[in-house]
Amino acid sequence: MTLMQLHYIITIAETGSLNKAADLLYVSQPSLTSAVKELEKELGITIFYRSGRGVTLTNDGTEFLLYAKQIYGQYESVMEKYGKGGSYKKKFGVSTQHYSFAVKAFVDMAKLFDMSQYEFAIRETKTKDVISDVSTMRSEIGVLYLSDFNRKSMTKLLNSAGLVFHHLIDCQAYVYLWRNHPLAHETSISFSQLEGYPCLSFEQGDNGAFYYAEEILTTNEYSQTIKANDRATMLNLMVGLNGYTLCSGIICEELNGSDYIAIPFKDDEFNQNSVMEIGYIVRKNTILSKMGEMYLESMKRYLKIQ
Predict the structure, then answer these.
(1) Between helices 3-15 and 29-43, what is the axis angle to 10°?
(2) Residue 227: HSE in the Cβ half-sphere, 13 Å Cα cutoff
(3) Percent of the chain having pLDDT more than 90?
(4) CA-CA distance, 164 to 281, in Å (whole number)?
(5) How far apart are CA 156 and CA 211, in angstroms?
(6) 26: exposed, middle or buried (C-beta count within 10 Å: 0-12, 13-18, 19+)?
(7) Cβ contact 133:123 at 8 Å
(8) Gap between the Cα atoms of 58 and 7, Å rounded
């Protein structure tokens, strides 16, 4: 098995066509087909189903592709860090829960590069997708949080996905709302004061477990709840419906504007304030790319981490 064969398999899977893959790889289709058959023979599995409409992955092929991407991705990272030249566009992706500081750090990092020479991606997405993206090397770094409530389950998920969590900062929970909200003048806000206002949370999918939630107190009974898929919609709901959410209190006015504020959440006997341990995840034994290292530096700088 060679790195070239792995590159072939990844390209064929992405294009779904031997012809298209051959064009992209600048090899003849017979040579490409021969390389795939040799690898299938060596591994003792069938990687692709072939038909008149193209090629599709078999079950064995789908599993093998994950390993192929991991191996080839590590090779690209090493070459990016230590190699010279290269005509391909270097790729760098981040998957994150909905944190404006994570986007701000990405913006600051991207500005330092000639973006015509790179393919950058920032994905604000569901918690399970953050884990999946980093596990499959779709993104190099993921940003999410742990708490006493979700730590055991999340740690188990991360371990099974071959990921490791690195601590960045601990935060107490804040109530996030717009400046003209009836409670905006309060110095702290308790759970009872929020009764009557819609609680906003990020959608985690039909099978989203409580442990995937980006907000604390997810098991509480709320009289009004609204789920949103993106940060812009959630901000609009704060203005239009006097909604609120429970967050880390780290706000980036440069991206979100100055119309929103974070007020400390005041806990009580039944609604305990939970420390949010925000950090980043990477694959175990990963060598970070230059972009990855600079992104982490940018995040730490914004969060004022020494």
Answers:
(1) 110
(2) 11
(3) 48
(4) 5
(5) 11
(6) exposed
(7) yes
(8) 18
Tokens representing 83 are: 């190699």
* Count of Cβ atoms closer than 10 Å to residue 17 Cβ: 16
Crossing angle between the packed helical segments 18-25 and 3-15, to the nearest 10 degrees: 130
pLDDT tens sequence across 252-288:
877 777 889 999 998 777 766 678 899 999 999 888 9
As beta bridge partners, residue 249 has none
Question: Is 10:23 a contact under the CB 8 Å cutoff?
Answer: no
CA angle at 163 for the pair 160 and 168, rounded to the nearest 5°:
135
For residue range 48-106, what is the model confidence (pLDDT) as tens digits? 888 877 888 999 989 999 999 999 888 887 777 666 655 556 789 999 999 999 999 99
One-character DSSP codes across the chain = --HHHHHHHHHHHHHT-HHHHHHHHTS-HHHHHHHHHHHHHHHTS--EEEETTEEEE-HHHHHHHHHHHHHHHHHHHHHHHH----SSPEEEEEEESS-HHHHHHHHHHHTTS-GGGEEEEEEE--HHHHHHHHHTTSSSEEEEEE-TTTHHHHHHHHHHTTEEEEEEEEE--EEEEETTSTTTT-SSEETGGGTTSPEEEE---TT--GGG-SSS-TTS--SSEEEESSHHHHHHHHHHH--BEEE-S---HHHH-SSEEEEEEE--SSS----EEEEEEEETT----HHHHHHHHHHHHHTT--
Q: Which two tokens stand for residue 274?
A: 């939970």
Integer Cα distance of 103 and 93 in angstroms? 12
Residue 260 phi, psi (nearest 5):
-130, 145
- pTM attached to this predicted model: 0.70
Which residues, 6 or more positions from 110, have their beta carbon under 8 angstroms from its beta carbon?
120
CA 159 to chain centre: 16
